[in-house]
Design goal:
Blueprint lengths: L3 H13 L11 H9 L16 E9 L2 E8 L5 E6 L3 H15 L7 H9 L8 H23 L3 H4 L7 E5 L4 E5 L9 H18 L4 E5 L6 H10 L7 E3 L7 H10 L4 E3 L6 H9 L5 E2 L9 H13 L12 H13 L6 E2 L10 E3 L8 E3 L8 E3 L1 H7 L23
Parallel strand pairs: 4-10, 5-6, 6-7, 7-8, 8-9
Antiparallel strand pairs: 1-2, 2-3, 4-12, 11-13
Pfam family, one: MR_MLE_N
Keywords: Lyase
Enzyme class: lyase
Length: 404
Amino acid sequence: MTTRRDLLASLGTAAAGALAFNTFRGDTNAALRADEGNNPAANVADRTSTIKITRITPTPVKRKVFLKVETNHGVTGWGEIDQLEPYVATALVKSLFELLDGENPTRIEHLWQKIYRSHRDMRGGPFMTHTLAGIDMALWDITGKLWGVPVYRLLGGPTRDKVRMYPSESATKVGAGPQPFSGSPQQIEGFVKTVENARAKVGPKGLVMFDAHCALPPPFLMQLASALKPYDLLYIEEPAVPGNIEVFKRLKKHISIPLAVGEQARTIWEVIPYLQEGCADILQIDCAHTGGISQMRKIAILGEAYHVPLAPHCVTTDLGVTASLHVSASIPFFLIHEYYPSITPPGLVKKSWSLDKDGYASLPEGPGIGCEVDEAVLAELAKQPSPPEWPTRGRLSDGSIADY
């Protein structure tokens, strides 16, 4: 009769090669003693595993932070933190390590909840969820490597053979910077012309998206949407500043073009109002903003219940993009994925997928996330200065502060 221990041994040998079964063999008596100590976690612990987190190393590089999670068995995982003040994010990672030290990295959901709920006044918000996203990516990377499969296999397997990306020859996005509350005919016509040029570029079979960047106040955006043909755009992205669902309801009432929301909706709890109120036609969730692979997949399931697909926002390097691709490959309701190769510094990340001539990405290959980070290149990049970007953002012509 095959025992659980025999099964894990055979899986470990097939999946991880050099990782022998005794790598994962645990001390059952120690686990039982932990039970006796009224440790709730011990009741669900994997008693055949001794793998533990031993170190997290965050490295700030310009506007991003790359973090490496190490274990006592030599298996490591990588994650990326994006769109935060990098030195604050680095300090937060070092502080949160206290919650991860000695934990089994494959208990991904448990550790996500442990970090997210660790402090009642830090729950949610960009600093917690963006930082948690990088940690979550690394934990999935480790778990995939231990099982010897790509992460999307652990998410239920692929639902598609390739993932459509933009920008490409057949899909493009145009955008806007801060604008006044209401526009002149000349201003509106300028944006209409931009959309017309983009449409001419991709042709009638191509896709054009418009990113409002939360920078077009509702009156301005309603003016613009009325001047556009409804079918000119696949969607309008970030139509308003998050925080008041009534604004999104007002825009949805007056705009016939599909609205894509969620770039700054960082958890399932922040997405729910958009779906319940019918304000989201497309969810442009960002894996690096919303708490990583774990939370992104949950949001995809919520969207599926409302027949709302994902069109993931993504301005990370190839590391964060690949993490996002694993979710996109495994969910049924998906539209298109954002990707800018120029964001990745040369030589820093070696990815396991490629783009074809039609703008489709192949599925990531290899165990875990499927990326290798050159630590020597990372160390050199970390020496470069990282000036803040906000002094150049969000200014109107009269000198007042605008949303962006």
